[in-house]
Amino acid sequence: MNFELFEAAADLRYLLSRGYPRKAALDLVGNRHQLDHTARQILHRGVFSPDAARTRRAKLRLLREVAGRPLGLDGHNVLITLECALRGLPLVAADDGFIRDVGQVSKHFRASPETEQALGLLADYLAQHQSGPVSVFYDAPLSLSGELARYTRELWNSRGLTVKAAAVPVPERELLTFPGPIAGSDTHLLDAREEIIDLAGEIIRQEAARGRQFRILTLSD
Q1: Of 16, 120, 137, 206, which has the highest C-beta tally within 10 A?
Q2: How far is 128 from 116, CA to CA, in rounded Å?
């Protein structure tokens, strides 16, 4: 990894640990190190104050630890991270224990060959860990979300999973009150809920252990 980015991450972490506002700290560090937009996005997605990172890590659960319980998925959040991994785009192993994409593709998301592959990986992983009933919430304003929800239901039901998938106006609203653990990496949900599964991250780590190559940046020691 570029040493300048590693050093910038340490600077940002230092400022955040002392209470600097996140945006101001990121601007200050980005300007000092003359970082481009992608590098700033990597910092934004991967670096947090030690207190925030520690609190979120304490909420992180493995899927096998919640086997059989209802699970709520932040659909596009999980799917896009997996798709970015499959496309060879950069990912960041964040301070709070979650793997995130840095491609900023959510607003322009379109189904692709990697979509079917990612949904297949998700179905296999959920079945492997005896997941309970799964509710998937896709972001309705994104293109063809209703079709994506229908395809998810069909594919996952064919794999023996009990699944409800729907396109809703605000997935976060559904997940904030979901009666069980949730899967995703949205920081607002991480701070609001008590049991979070980094489902995309678990699958990426499993596939990496099997020899698949991913571009994962780690910004801490």
Answers
A1: 137
A2: 18
Sign of torsion over alpha carbons 58, 63, 68, 72: positive
List the domain boundaries for the chain. 3-47, 59-218
Class of domain 59-218: alpha beta
Indicate yes or no: pTM above 0.85.
Answer: yes
Report how far residue 59's alpha carbon sits from residue 211's, in angstroms, rounded to the nearest whole number: 29
Q: What is the C-alpha to C-alpha distance for residues 124 and 119, in angstroms, rounded to an integer?
A: 9
Classify residue 195 by burial, with Cβ atoms within 10 Å: 0-12, 13-18, 19+: middle
**Residue whose token pair is 């230092």:** 14
Tokens of 148: 């994506």
pLDDT at 106: 62
> 3 burial class (0-12, 13-18, 19+ CB within 10 angstroms)?
exposed
Asked if 74 and 43 touch (Cβ cutoff 8 Å), the reply is no
In this structure, the strands spanning 134-139 and 99-101 are unpaired
131-148 b/e with 16+ CB inside 10 Å = b?
beebbbbbbeebeebeeb
The angle formed by the CA atoms of residues 131, 56 and 71, to the nearest 5 degrees, is: 20
Summarize the confidence of residues 133-151 as an average pLDDT: 94
